[in-house]
Amino acid sequence: MISVEDLNLRLGNFALVDVNLRVGRGEHLVILGPIGSGKTTLLKCIAGIYTPDSGRIKIDGRDISRLPPEKRNLGYVPQDYKLFPHLNVAENVAFGLKVRGLSDVGERVREVLELVGLPELSSRRVEQLSEGQKQLVAIARALAIKPHVLLLDEPFARLDSVAKARLRGELMRIHEQTGTTMIHVTHDFEAALGLGGRVAVMDGGRLSQELPEVARYLQERLGYIPVDLEGEV
Questions:
Q1: What is the secondary structure of 179-199 as a DSSP string?
Q2: Which residue ranges in the chain fall short of pLDDT 70?
Q3: What is the pLDDT of residues 73-118, one digit of tens each?
Q4: 19 near 4, Cβ under 8 Å?
Q5: Does domain 1-73+151-233 have CATH number 3.40.50.300?
Q6: Which of 11, 55, 61, 163 could covalently link to 159 via disulfide, CB atoms 3.0 to 4.6 Å apart?
Q7: How many other C-beta atoms are found inside a 10 Å radius of the C-beta of residue 158?
Q8: CA distances from 208 to 1, 84, 87, 117, 146 (A)
Q9: Per-domain boundaries in the chain
């Protein structure tokens, strides 16, 4: 479905180094790593916000490495949501649909707000929402365009423990209902483990999907291995 091949990018003193990644259609991959490890940088490369110095990014075998973000049909949810404060919930969700000139905008907005469990908040303004609700609205906006891949950047970062638990459940339900391919990066191990079919780790700009390396990393960081690395919690 999506592949990253020998990707390199230098940003000041930091670099992504020889990153290779394969994510199958319908998979929910969780990439774990500490703050500053390069997780967000990798996600921005996939989204088209950064252009790699070398390497390729492909979707279904098509090289998208040099395409602008709007040509990739990817849903990207940044850490700070990037909701428009002057628009209400429904208008935020409709934004990408209107930019693309798609029809049946109102129907699609209703569908996706129902999907994330917020149909009653369509007319509410952004400042009236909780952090968890803002995150779900941002996810709804990203899903509205029916993206090839949903990219989630630290979705638990601004949430308290109750909101994290709810979002975890919502993400699992959304993935089950839609089958959308998801790449989810986070440093919040406890909140994220068990969400994905696979776990990868990133540290110092390098990514590993090898099971022994993932197991070693989790053992070092947590003192135990809380998941079956073949995919079962």
A1: --EEEEEES-HHHHTTSSSEE
A2: 194, 196, 224-233
A3: 999 999 999 999 999 999 999 998 998 887 789 999 999 999 999 9
A4: yes
A5: yes
A6: 163
A7: 15
A8: 18, 36, 40, 35, 29
A9: 1-73+151-233, 84-147
